[in-house]
Design goal:
By secondary structure, the chain is α+β, with helices and mostly antiparallel strands. The protein has helices spanning 15-59, 153-156, 198-219; strands at residues 65-71, 77-79, 90-96, 102-112, 117-125, 130-138, 162-163, 178-180, 190-192. It has one domain. The strands form two sheets. The protein has a seven-stranded antiparallel β-sheet with strand order 2-1-3-4-5-6-7, sandwiched between helices. Strands 8-9 form a two-stranded parallel ribbon. The protein starts with 14 loop residues before the first helix and ends in an 11-residue tail after the last helix.
Amino acid sequence: MSTPALPLAAPPTPTRAMLLALGLVAAICGLIIVVAYEGSLSSVQENRRVAMERAIHKVLPGAAKTVAYVARPNGGIRPLTGADTAADGVPFHAAFDASGQLMGIAAEGSAKGYAGNVRIMFGYSPPCHCVVGFSVVSMQETPGIGDKILKDANFLANFKALDVRLAADMKALANEVKTVKHGSKTQAWQVDAISGATVTSRAVGRAINDAAQALLPVLVPQLDKIGSSK
């Protein structure tokens, strides 16, 4: 009686060769990502700069020149540099007219909306101590509902002279910016909400209030340090 043939053993797996191959693939993929990132970085930065300039000119029409500054927690103001981080203070842009005179301040704010954070920019006019312009930097609100804040004429009218003056001690706003139910606005520091888009309307009010509370107590006493662009 013949003995059945035993199955041949599988050849040993070349573990080291596989690891080397995987490592080589990973290195190549990493190199491609780095090269792509570095190659597109300048374009991304330029697009951000252009978008920022457009937002500034929307909230402060007629600006001939803008200069970036940072209001520091210790009360100082200095030009913003690329090395600055969020912990260094509150960034803002000083806008100058064609004659080099300061015409207003543009600053960003952010607050939670219905579908995510609503990032906005507002223009501040020192003579009237008020917000004189508003635009959206980015948001993820529902099309046709949340995006009404960009189109609704009555809502945009809130930001023609929104009162953000400081209290007598210069440590905070005299009155918090608050969003109220549509049709119930009675004060210059209130934001009349859009009916059907109240959550997004409130996000805009909170974003302006929080940014103004952080920036203006530092900025207003030192506006003379900004001077002119000449």
